[in-house]
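Input:
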Amino acid sequence: MIDMPRRKLDPLPSAAFQILLALSEEKMHGYGIMRQVESQTEGRVRLGPGTLYSSIQTLLEGKLIEEADAGEQEKGTERRRYYRITSAGRKGARAEAERLADLLRVARARRVFRGEYV
Amino acid sequence: MSEKLYAFLLRLYPAHFRKAYGEDALQLLRDRLRDEPGFAGRLRLWIDLLADLALSAPREHRRVVPAASLPAEARLFQVLEMEPPRPSTFFFGGALALAGLAAFILLLSYAGVRKPFRAEPSPASQAASTQLAGSSRSATQPGADGRAQSSSNTSGDQRQTNRQAAEFLLDAAERQRVLAAVIANVREYEDDRAAGKRIVAALRSNQRSGRYDAITSGRAFANALNTQMEAASPATRVLIFYTNIPFTSISPASTTHPIDDHFAISIPVGTHSPRGRNAAAMRTRRA
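Output:
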């Protein structure tokens, strides 16, 4: 097994970070993740199927997420794959959030923001 | 309709991606078609899909595929763009290049000293040539019947030596050289001067008419010369021999006089050269 190149996840791509954030509370299938990302970004980001599943594959290979049983959430006859975040994924999401927080502190120190952001 | 069109567009993704997530992508499309009705919803959906396709399909084609997900034969072509070559790679590559260069130089030097294949006699066939000369000499000694016996014995020897060496092919220059030598010998050794002149005239006439031009076989050329000499003078006892083994070691006392590496002319015992050449040898043989 050849691991994915490390630069794919370091730094964490925006789409992958959004997916980790979407899965941080509960397991979801692909369409649920897309809707959750759209919701948490207030409609600014809608992941298309290619970007969504490409990012999911990268996160699976990096062991930041894993497939999960559908359990009670499986409805009807449609078979969907569910995903949930792993402990490594939480660490990776936390590290990415801290990196962005550091950037935010620097931006604030440089007085990049104006008005209500300050 | 939208689902079929998107299923077709999914072919733009690599096979491993379609196999792993193609059905999930179609399911996501069905979900969006269900949840985003209306013209505006469909328009936004297709804008999203096409933009996503343009960005993600090339990225998927550049992706390094895990070896375990590939068939065994495809792993031979694993792209290693993310893995720099190891030092041992350079070492073995350099050693292989040096070995190849050494082999190439060795082959060049071998080709420089190699002799091309030729229809040249081996030492064994040289001995056979000497035996052939001796056989011809002894066969011509009976006198009046010498011509027929010599022809028969030499033909048998030629059949034997044909198995030992390749046929010597004549070109125009060789035919001209042999013919000139035959004419010179006929003039010198033919007892009947009138017959000698007829023979020479016939040979030259045939040469001018191009009857020899197509002959490349030494044996066929000798046969043609003998036939034409006999036609010009049935009483002539001069006979042309051919062998594909050069017989340059024939004794000067032989009645078979070499005129070429491959051609010889038979001079029957008792023939006296008008110029006295070989007369001593003839007399010695006759004695």
